[in-house]
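Need tokens for this chain, all 110 residues.
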Amino acid sequence: MLARFSNGVGFDQHDLKPDVRGVALKIFGVSDSSAAAEGQEPRTVDFLMTNSTNPFGKDQEEFVQFMLANVNAGISGTHLITFLIGHTEVARLLMKATFRIIPSRTVAVQ
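Here are the structure tokens for all 110 residues:
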């Protein structure tokens, strides 16, 4: 299993600074009974979790458009701003998640 922790701004900053936070898990060697019966190899399964209560998009296509605008924003942020102007619900959800502060906690893993 691999785990990746991330934030929305793309650089390290203190956990108490407002931002979108996430963790992704990749589980290797997953097989199900139908795959095994058909002779298929085990596969990987990915899980993505964020501190947002809602995804940034009404469907998969709008979420991908949001991510592409964010990646292509560069220093000026023009692509992302243009996208958010045309997708006000995504902009609202982004602001809600960005300014939500999640305090850090220590968790014992066994």
